[in-house]
Specification:
- The mean pLDDT is about 85.
- The protein starts with 11 loop residues before the first strand and ends in an 18-residue tail after the last helix.
- With about 120 residues, the chain is an alpha+beta fold.
- The chain has helices at about 60-70, 75, 85-95, and strands spanning about 10-15, 20-25, 30-35, 40-45, 55-60.
- The chain contains 3 helices and 5 strands, in the order E-E-E-E-E-H-H-H.
- This is YlxR family protein.
- It comes from Natronosporangium hydrolyticum.
């Protein structure tokens, strides 16, 4: 009789802000990009986890972002020589938390009859 396959556990990552462990699916991956002209770094949100390079993980919560910035955790996690600009991550978090216009699907009744 073949052995039952063990179900894979989800990838667990640590939030660079609050330092709590969570499944990677609950965290936002952030990567650093460098300005070729000035040598400055900025953080880029990677919600699809498809960008190349070293990534740091963060709860999609402004409090965790503030903790990570105060602790200068992105520079260490991403092995950067300077403090990166987190403007794009702030914008992404604000847009993700912004109230979306209600589509009205909750109150809409769908007629499933065949007539």
């Amino acid at each position: 009789m073949p052995a039952a396959r063990a179900q894979k556990a989800p990838w667990v990552r640590t939030c660079v802000g609050c330092r709590k462990r969570a499944p990677a699916s609950e965290l936002l991956r952030v990567v650093a990009e460098m300005d070729p002209a000035g040598g400055r770094f900025w953080l880029v949100p990677d919600p699809t986890r498809s960008r190349p390079g070293r990534g740091a993980h963060l709860h999609p919560d402004p409090a965790c972002l503030a903790l990570a910035q105060r602790r200068r955790a992105f520079g260490r996690a991403l092995r950067l020589s300077s403090v990166p600009d987190a403007g794009a991550v702030v914008e992404w978090l604000e847009s993700a938390r912004a109230p979306r216009p209600d589509s009205g699907e909750k109150d809409r009744t769908i007629d499933m009859s065949t007539r």
